[in-house]
# Entry
Amino acid sequence: MKDVMVIGAGKIGGAIASMLADTGDYKVVIADRSGEQLAKIERHPAISTATFDIADHASVVAALSDKFAVLSAAPFHLTGQIAEAALKADVHYLDLTEDVATTKKVEALAQNANRVFIPQCGLAPGFISIVASDLASRFDSLDSVRMRVGALPQYPSNALNYNLTWSTDGLINEYIEPCEAVVEGRLVSVPAMEEREEFSLDGVTYEAFNTSGGLGTLAKTLEGKVRTMNYRTIRYPGHQTIVKALLNDLNLKNRRDVLKDLFENALPATMQDVVVIFVTVCGWRDGRYLQETYANKIYAGIVAGRKMSAIQITTAAGIAAVLDLFAQGKRYAKGFVRQEEIALRDFLSNRFGRVYSPDALRARQAG
# Structure
């Protein structure tokens, strides 16, 4: 069994611990500074808990010193400190961050690492980059890469057509921070919440707009090789207009604490969600201009013996699959690893990555 630590005992951290422990191949310590959060973790013989403050660098390093890897499921503003502790403790490091600045810090730290540092291992960034890279590899030359992802309530019932499904801090960060995009072959910064579009999938109409972090490192990888590349978050129509009013007209973009309190006390959480993934790549192959598309919907269900939301399943499976591939010796020696270096075939054939398949959906619903 490989000893790993998951830092962050929220919904995603708990899901990661359950998935890994359920295999019998991992012994998991889940750590958090909140004893109340740790008390909510489901009991399992292969899961134990630890309480410490990430700000106490020496304590974190000591806790990591005998581990195979550390997986950060903590809020994005704490991720850099965990990466620093991983470097000092000489352990492998994986995270879920969508924050661009944090990923750049992790990349810098990885230059001096003897272990692998693999950021952005969730859904978006994460799986979405693996899919887009796979589609792009099928072309002789690229024209456009369009990546769309949304975690949505199955049964929207408020004006925002939205329920909280994951980290409120992460959600707000995506809605406010600048976004990366490739425009006419150049990597540029574009504003969040702009460039709205509508599309239909399976008879349902959605809107999508710029949000920060979703492109991950793929933007830099494909800069100069693609004319247009962008990432947009999927919502039901009407969401963007109201959120822009909150951010700009009420100036809540400069009062994140107020916006967080508003979201968490006015938008109920839900376990009845659906993750929508829609990636389209256009380019030239054998002299013809062609398009390839990946479209998928993942629903809530039973995984590792417990009911999980769709965002828990997809995010936790993303980081668990990457860890598992590495633990099985698939690749990577040391240093910084980009999501697009991971083969889609390997990911989907992995025992955790298989949750993205239609067969896995039917199994979860039957469970």
